[in-house]
Design brief:
The chain has 4 helices and 5 strands, in the order E-E-H-E-H-E-H-E-H. With 137 residues, it is of the alpha/beta class. This is STAS/SEC14 domain-containing protein.
């Protein structure tokens, strides 16, 4: 698996190529979320267009949901977009990340252009971080 991270002014584009093991995806997400630039990110785009095979299933997506849940506390104004034409993967992403484990708003789009168009059509989020737990009191 190859993944190239492209940090843009308002977010990050992760471009994957070749085989994508679920552990590789989770490692990339951890790397993105641990970067100081993530605190101000408006979006993360995971571009799977050049992925030839993967083993991403409900278990890996559940772990991904947990990573998103924790990251949202300190970086609440982010949206996540997955680019794939794999309908089975798209359905799993929607089911797991859009269900009971939802934290970030997640979307699946067939092309990178569609992903960017969707992001451009969304209002900017202006949520306050509650990492210290003061807002929830």
């Amino acid at each position: 698996m190859t993944c190239r991270l492209v940090w843009e002014p308002e977010g990050v584009l992760a471009i994957y190529e070749g085989g994508l093991p679920s552990a590789g995806l989770l490692d990339v997400v951890r790397r993105i979320q641990s970067d100081p630039r993530f605190d101000d990110a408006r979006y993360v785009i995971h571009d799977f267009s050049a992925v030839s095979r993967h083993d991403i299933g409900p278990s890996a997506l559940t772990e991904l949901a947990a990573l998103h849940y924790g990251a949202k506390l300190s970086s609440p104004n982010c949206r996540i977009v997955f680019v794939t034409m794999d309908s089975r993967l798209a359905d799993e992403i929607r089911k797991v990340l859009g269900g009971d484990l939802k934290s970030y708003q997640c979307e699946v789009r067939p092309t990178l252009i569609d992903a960017r168009d969707w992001l451009d059509a969304q209002p900017q989020l202006m949520l306050l971080s509650d990492v210290m737990g003061f807002i929830g009191r």
